[in-house]
Every structure is written in C-alpha cells, then in structure tokens.
Amino acid sequence: MPETPGPAEPSLEEQIAAYQREFQDLDPQVEQVVSALSRLNRRMNVAYSRHTATLGISNAEWEVLKALVVSGAPYRLGPGDLAKRLGLTPAAMTHRIDRMANDGLVTRERDEANRVRVIVELTVEGREKWLEAMRMASVFEEDLLQDLSSEERAAFGEMLMRVLRRVEETQPDAGGRLSDLD
Amino acid sequence: MPETPGPAEPSLEEQIAAYQREFQDLDPQVEQVVSALSRLNRRMNVAYSRHTATLGISNAEWEVLKALVVSGAPYRLGPGDLAKRLGLTPAAMTHRIDRMANDGLVTRERDEANRVRVIVELTVEGREKWLEAMRMASVFEEDLLQDLSSEERAAFGEMLMRVLRRVEETQPDAGGRLSDLD
DNA sequence: GCTTCGAACTTTACTATTGAAGTCTTCAGA
DNA sequence: TCTGAAGACTTCAATAGTAAAGTTCGAAGC
C-alpha cells in the first residue's frame, strides 16, 4: 500500500497551521474564515462544471445564460453590458458570443435603432439549457446546506451579506475583472 | 445627469428576485447564501489582484508562492505536486514555473536522487514577496470581517467548515481543475 | 452640412491554460 | 543485462483571455 500517494492538497487545518508558523501576527480565526470561503468556492465551481459539462456547455457559457435570464424578458443585452456583468473585457465577450451564437444559445444582431449597438438575445434553446443547469444547481445547493438548520441558514446568509456589504463599501472596485459569476 | 449609467451588475436582491421569477421551485434562502458566497469570493479575488499587482506579481504566481510556503521549510515541491495543489494541469505548471524561475521567485533543478523528478524551491526573494503579499492580505481580511463580533466570526467559520465538509464528502472531486487557491 | 469627438464593438498580437503526444528515467521481470 | 511498462515532466497544437489599436456610427459644434 502506498504510504502517501503523494503530497495532495493539505487540509485546511494544516494550511492554517503552516501560515501561522510562517507569519506570526496572523489571526487564525480570520484566516480560517477566509480560507474556508475560498476553498468552498473552489469546490462549488468544480461541481458546477460537472453539471454544465453534462449539458454540453461550459461554465463560461452558463454565466452568459444566467446574465441574460436575470436581465428578464425579452432576455436581451448588449455585449458591453454583458462584459460588465461578467467582469470580462469587451474583447473576450465578443469571442464568447461568437461561440455561443454558433452553438445556437444566443442570437447576435445589430440594433437598427442605433447601429453602433449590438443586441445579444437568448434563444429558446439557450433558455432551456439555463433551466436544466438551474435544476441541477438547485439540487446541489440544497444538498450543500443540508447540515444547516433553517435558523442557521438565515444567520449564515445574513453574515455573508454583511461581509459582502463591507467589501463593496471599502473596495471601490472600478469594474473588477477576474473570477466567476454568482 | 445620466438616468442609468448603463445596466451595471444587478444587486444580489434583484438577481435573486429574477431567478425566482424565472424558476419557481427555488429556495430563496439557499440561493441567497450561494449567490452571496460566490459574489463575495469574486470581490475578494479582485482585491487580492490589486495587492499582488502592486508587488509586481500575478495572483497565479502568488498561489505558487503560497503552496510552497505552506509545504514548510525547505520550501520545495515538485511540479506535479504543485499542479495537484493548485488544481492545474502539469503542462500549465511547467510554464508557470518557467516564468517564475525567470523572475527569480523560485529555482528549478533536477532531483539528483531520482533524475525523473524536478525540485522547485522558493528563493529568498520569493519568500519575501509572499510575506509582503501576506501582510497586505491580512490587513484586508481583518477589515473584511470588521462588522462581525468575535462570537459571530466563530459561528461563521464553524458553519463554513460544516458546509465545506459536506461538499467534500458528497463530491468525490477526482482532482478538480478550475479556480483559485485559498 | 462638415468635422470632430466619443461610444460600442471588433480585430490584432500576445499570454496562459488545456489535452494529447513525446522524452527521459527508473524499476521489475525474463 | 536487456526489455517493457510506468511515472514525471515537457512539448505541441488548439482554445480563451487581456490590452491596445482599429472601425463604424451617432451627436454636438461651428
């Protein structure tokens, strides 16, 4: 039997202990919260990727579908708006829309009222993909919080919102690139 | 004055309301938790990027520094181990190490005891970069949780750990790619 | 009514990551 | 010892992202 199959990812406890060893004035409580947040998010994204992969789309495409659905009927947004919402450059958005239009998830057409603008619209197929992804996600998310009572979920959500508010107040943001959509 | 400066990112409340409108059997409480988690993580990564940028490194490079520091003295790991820990392919790791060795953050040498292996070792400069990044991060993180009392932080961390444990139990993971390190 | 400015998107060049194929080393069996 | 298989990285071709330059259209002055 293999003693250690190779140094895999250290546990959160090990990781925090290592940071404390290397950096004295670290608040272990703060670090535990932050590290758990980050690792949890990573695990969740891996799970979402599995979901979307079974539908033949990528997480990146799912994000675009989500943004369009959230915008509400008639599910239309310009590439620039989409880019802002997803935290991408306009150039990246252009390419992503290329691919998605190619796959029939959205249509792209010029806005005849103002021909500088472009309108990206969700197709029926795109909406159905979103719905299937959403179904899988909601089952997964419900399972995720299974060990928290309803009261705990409420307290958890409330604290998350408080921290989120704090970061949005203190970080002007300036249209941040990076990372995944909610 | 501009009525709306352009549809920016919708607030979490708006977003959740939109999901409920489009997808009836969605638990708003669950969705609030999940969306807040995801958005918070995004904001945090934007902030970390600002920190690392001022040090002249990227978040990607910082992740490698963190993994090496967490491994403890003498701060050595193989490219394969690093790739596992960061959730990257070995190929990506090869390139990342190229760049970092070029920048003097790590050294790369063949393991003379087993010449198939390669040893990546943190340099003094790399360790200092890590330390500076860590200082900035710890200030930011302390500020992030400012609105939570010590009791709340403990409860928050405990719930995060419970959810994390849940996802790690139910998702076999199989060495997930994707996303950022803790 | 030109002309210039700015906005919205696209194009281009470059960088980072992936998956698959390739290389080199070690180890176990014939 | 030779040979074959497996492991650890690297190389290669293709994909997706960024930053900056380029296009095109609309609007505001002169």
- The assigned CATH architecture of chain A is Orthogonal Bundle
Low-confidence stretches of chain A: 1-6, 175-179
Mean of residue pLDDT values of chain A? 89
Could you name the CATH homologous superfamily of chain A?
Answer: Winged helix-like DNA-binding domain superfamily/Winged helix DNA-binding domain
Order of helices and strands of chain A: HHHEHHEEHH
Tell me, what's the shape of chain A? elongated
Largest interface: A-B, 85 and 85 residues
Spatially, the strands of the biggest sheet of chain A line up as: 1-3-2
Concise synopsis of the structure shown:
Chains A, B: It comes from Streptomyces bingchenggensis (strain BCW-1). The first copy, chain A, has 182 residues and is mainly alpha-helical. Chain A contains seven helices and three strands.
Structure description:
Two copies of one chain form a homodimer. The first copy, chain A, is mainly α and 182 residues long. Chain A has one domain: Winged helix-like DNA-binding domain superfamily/Winged helix DNA-binding domain (Arc Repressor Mutant, subunit A), CATH 1.10.10. Helix content of chain A is 63%, strand content 7%. Chain A has a three-stranded antiparallel beta sheet. In chain A, strand 2 and strand 3 form a beta hairpin. Chains A and B meet through helix 1, helix 2, helix 3, helix 4 and helix 6 of A and helix 1, helix 2, helix 3, helix 4 and helix 6 of B. Chain A binds a DNA duplex (30 and 30 nucleotides) through helix 5.
